Amino acid sequence: FHTFMGEKIKDWKSCRDLVKSIFENYRIPYLTISPTYSICPIHGYIAGEHFECPKCKAEKEKQLKQKIAQLEAEKAELTKK
């Protein structure tokens, strides 16, 4: 029996109790519990399933806002002339 968790296991005692309960109540040959996580090439481990790194996304948004502000300043400078 293979279980994918939707997030990292925060409390090992809960995991222990789950495993104990499963083996006491069911006849299965094996049990695996895998937390769902993502890997960013820059920031590494990210808990949960992410298709885009939240840290990289925030950095990209910050850079984009700075670029927009720069372009608006250049536009304002050009319209003064």
Would you write up a description of this structure?
With 81 residues, the chain is an alpha+beta fold. The chain has a domain of 35 residues. 51% of the residues lie in helices and 20% in strands. It contains two helices and four strands. Strands 1-2 form a two-stranded parallel sheet. The protein has a two-stranded antiparallel sheet with strand order 3-4. A hairpin with a 3-residue loop joins strand 3 and strand 4. The longest helix has 27 residues. The protein is rod-shaped. 0% of the residues are buried.
Q: What's the short version?
A:
This protein is an alpha+beta fold and 81 residues long. It contains two helices and four strands. The N and C termini lie far apart (72 Å).
SSE inventory with pairings:
Blueprint: E1 2-5, H1 12-25, E2 32-35, E3 37-40, E4 44-47, H2 54-80
The strands making up the biggest β-sheet line up spatially as 1-2
N- to C-terminal distance: 72 Å
What's the Cα radius of gyration?
Answer: 24 Å
- Strand count: 4
Taken as a percent bin, the fraction of beta residues is 15-25%
Mean pLDDT: 88
Task: Tell me the helix content.
Answer: 40-55%
Order of helices and strands: EHEEEH
Q: What kind of oligomer do you see?
A: single chain
